[in-house]
Design goal:
single chain; 209 residues; alpha+beta; globular
Length: 209
């Protein structure tokens, strides 16, 4: 029994070493570009500067703007039907695959593999420093068979995508959303269950010179 307990402790410790979670600085919730100016600048980009990374503060602001908690009751920066909060935001970074944990405001690592090239069918996706993958957890929306659950998830993902667009416009970053993703190949990299559905991908980075 002691041997099994020691083995469990060892495996837990090793898992902690392998999982390189990214703690994000507190998001900046004040200042920035006026809303109307950000709307005027909103655009879709199809090229990115592969040499420039986003700063930790930019990553923090990006994920909080997309789907962060903005009230004490746990509600988010984007609405969701019946407050199901069924969308999970995954991140494809050079340092691995992550999922955004809004409660602790951190990126939890799923894999250390660089899977950015799987974030779309176009060559430019591998140049973007980060691609966000919006995934609908249909179990949180009443199950895949419940009428309207997919429709709600698609609408809610759209709200989050627009938040990303507006943040990028205000920060003068390039971004572009798309549905052309090899979901069969990417799904296992995200360790998705059968009732989790990839809705869209959205790359973020600096504009290509």
């Amino acid at each position: 029994m002691n041997i099994l307990r020691s083995l469990a402790i060892t495996l837990f410790a090793c898992g902690g070493l392998l999982a390189q979670n990214l703690s994000l600085p507190a998001p900046q919730k004040t200042g920035g570009m006026p809303l109307m100016e950000a709307l005027a600048r909103r655009a879709t980009a199809r090229s990115f500067d592969a040499a420039r990374e986003l700063s930790p503060q930019q990553l923090s602001n990006l994920f909080w703007a997309a789907w962060g908690i903005n009230r004490p009751d746990g509600k988010r920066t984007a609405p969701s039907a019946r407050n199901n909060q069924e969308i999970d935001v995954y991140a494809l970074l050079k340092t691995g695959v992550f999922v955004y944990d809004a409660k602790d405001h951190q990126l939890r690592q799923i894999s250390p593999e660089d899977c950015r090239a799987l974030g779309g069918s176009q060559p430019f996706v591998r140049d973007a420093p980060v691609t966000l993958i919006l995934v609908a957890d249909l179990a949180k929306a009443g199950g895949a068979g419940k009428a309207g659950s997919k429709d709600w998830a698609f609408i809610d993902a759209g709200y989050i995508s627009q938040n990303i667009y507006l943040y990028c416009a205000a920060e003068r970053l390039a971004t572009g959303a798309r549905a052309y993703v090899d979901k069969t190949e990417l799904g296992p990299k995200l360790q998705l269950r059968p009732d989790q559905l990839i809705v869209l991908a959205q790359s973020v980075g600096y504009p290509k010179p």
